[in-house]
Each structure stands twice: as structure tokens, then as C-alpha cells.
Amino acid sequence: MLTLKQDHSELVVLSVLAIGPSYGYAISKDIAARSDGHFKLSPSGMYPLLTKLEKNGLVTTGWEEVKAAGADPDSTGRRRKWYTLSDKGHKQLTKRIEHHRQVQSILDGFVMPSNQSAPESELANG
Amino acid sequence: MLTLKQDHSELVVLSVLAIGPSYGYAISKDIAARSDGHFKLSPSGMYPLLTKLEKNGLVTTGWEEVKAAGADPDSTGRRRKWYTLSDKGHKQLTKRIEHHRQVQSILDGFVMPSNQSAPESELANG
DNA sequence: AAGAATATATCCAGTTTCGATATATCCGAA
DNA sequence: TTCGGATATATCGAAACTGGATATATTCTT
What we know:
The structure is a homodimer of 126-residue chains. With 126 residues, chain A is of the alpha+beta class.
């Protein structure tokens, strides 16, 4: 199981929402499924993140009352909060992907296979 | 200027030290130079990080007294703390690179160009 | 002699992290 | 019909992290 940092979590959630509207629980299942169980975003990571996205205007939200098949008509029913990526969210995602790729490319300059071998050089303390 | 998160900072510092021993200020200049000024690790990020690496046994350290050319013989001189990647540090670096690549590869599954286009699909609410 | 560069290091207020916890509904099995 | 697992959203709080500001001291350049 690989743990996701906030930045990566946001990137993944925005990416999932770019496909279409969804809600917390479904997003979390989606992430687990689409990463073959390697990525996991727990409720305590998911909901503060979604709230933040909402506050920043990257998503719009709406409640759905999920009526059960044979449910008590008086029952409140299970509530589901849908998240839809806004225009701002789409732009933000594009921006983040760009940023992500740039960081990757520069990082790769440091993390080359050559770095893993012989540290025998004597360019110190001389 | 791209800001580095702790994880990336550690990866970069370990990578720099894999080439050979160095010290805080030099590492920070090295990172700026080797990233064309895109990455920056400030003193307040660098020294706590180096201390942590030392505490975790990923580096060994030693002080060097840097005598100036025409310096006062009684002068203490400038002190330089050298950091050398330990065996444990080398192993840790290899491990982190592996982890980094794995995260990248899975992340790329989410962040595909296709995600940036038309979110018209109706696979919600069904 | 002043100021920029070299060099290491801590402080601290704000943010992030993430397991634990709380609440409530729905569904299938015993 | 009752129990447990799955569905579903949300907060708490201790610990860790972040990064600008600050402190200290030496050396080089002008």
C-alpha cells in the first residue's frame, strides 16, 4: 500500500472528477480500484480534501437523497454529496498536471541510475 | 521556482550525497545549479533535514576547520560540517527511488491527457 | 570599512497528516 | 428480526511538517 501525500491526493481526486461527477465514498473506491489497490484515500483524508476543493471553488456540490427500494417513506434516506469539477477546477487540474510533470522531469535529473552506484570519489575533505 | 516537499527534498539530498560527501551550503547551491534554479532548499529546510538524516543513520558527519589563506592563526576559522552517505543511506536511497518510480507509474494512470478533456460521460447517478 | 557571500543553526506560527472516532443508513444472512 | 458488514459523510487531535524570519560568525570583494 502506497500512501499518498496531499498534493498527490488532490491530483488524483481532481483527475477522477475530471471524468465525471462523483461522491466521497465512490471516489475512494475508484482510486483503490484504478490503482490495483496501491493507492488508498481514507475518509479522514478524503472529506477534508473535498471540503477544501469546494471552498476553493474547484468543485460544485449538491446533495442527493438515495431512496432505498423498499424503504420507509418517512425515512430521511441515505444522503450522498455529489462533487462536480468546475471550470476553475479543470483549469487547476491542467495546471497541476503541468507542474507535476515539470517537477518529475527535474527530479529525474537528480535521481538517475548512476546515482545508485560507486560513491568512491574522493572529492571531499581533500 | 518550484518548491520541494520534504519527501522530494530528502530524495534530492540523498541523491546529491550519493555522488560524494558534501555540506549544507554546498548541497543547497548544488541543487539550485543542477536544477537550473528551479529547485531551492533554504537553510531552514536544509539543516533540520540533514540533522534528521544524521539521526536516522543515513549519513555520517564530521567537522572541517576551513583555514583562510591569510587568516589569523589564532582564529577559530569557519567550520564546515561534512555529510557522507552511509551504507544504510545508500540502501534507503535505492528504496526511495524504487518507491518514487512506483508512485509515478501509478499516478500516471490517473493523470493521463484523456483526463483533461470532455467530462460528458453519464456514468454517474445510474 | 562596508557589504556581499559563505556557513550553520534555531524559532515559531501556521498547515498538514492520518489513525481514531462519531453518526447514520442499507442490505443480506442467519 | 436481529446482527454484522458495507455504504456514506464528517470531525478530532496529537504529531509532524513548512518556510520565512532570525541569530551568529567568518571570509571575500571593493
